[in-house]
Amino acid sequence: MNSITFYQRFEMDILSQKKTITIRDASEKDFVPHSIVDVSTYEDGRWFCQLRIVSVTPISFSELTDVHAQQENMTLEELKQVISDIYPETPDLYVIAFELVK
Ligand SMILES: CC(=O)Nc1cc[nH]c(=O)n1
Questions:
Q1: pLDDT digits (tens, 9 = 90+) for 29-78
Q2: Per-residue confidence at 21, pLDDT binned at 50, 70, 90?
Q3: N or C terminus of the chain with fewer C-beta within 10 Å?
Q4: Apex CA 39: angle with CA 33 and CA 41, to 5°?
Q5: Rounded to the nearest whole angstrom, what is the distance from the C-alpha of residue 22 to the centroid of ligand 1?
Q6: CATH number of the domain residue 7 falls in
């Protein structure tokens, strides 16, 4: 996997390095640590940066903590709402940690 999309509303947080993880379902678990991926908006496919994958770690919804929320630049309540909206009824998730490629 050498590309990933994010909702436009996350773009500024990624570019300012306030958001350093993304939580995805199993369909996006195969990113390779140390690889570089192209990043585009989900809505219109506009490329906006490259990210270096740091790690991919399985997690269940119930294991999400304030640390994950901080890494997403959200409160834990906001994070749980976002993940529930995107991945309803999906207990098995993956934390993909990344760094902005400058
Ligand atoms: C497009 C898309 O699924 N975007 C997501 C999903 C989960 N977290 C995130 O930061 N972005």
A1: 999 999 999 999 999 999 999 999 999 999 999 999 999 999 999 999 99
A2: very high
A3: C
A4: 145
A5: 6
A6: 2.30.130.30
| Residue to probe by mutation, ligand 1, list 7, 10, 11, 46, most atoms within 8 Å of CB | 7
For 54, the domain range is 3-100
Neighbours of 28 (CB within 10 A): 16
Smallest CA separation from ligand 1 atom 10, residue: 22
ipTM of the prediction greater than 0.95, yes or no: no
For residues 36 and 44, give the distance between their C-alpha atoms in angstroms, rounded to a whole number: 21
* Ligand 1 centroid, distance to 102 Cα (angstroms): 21
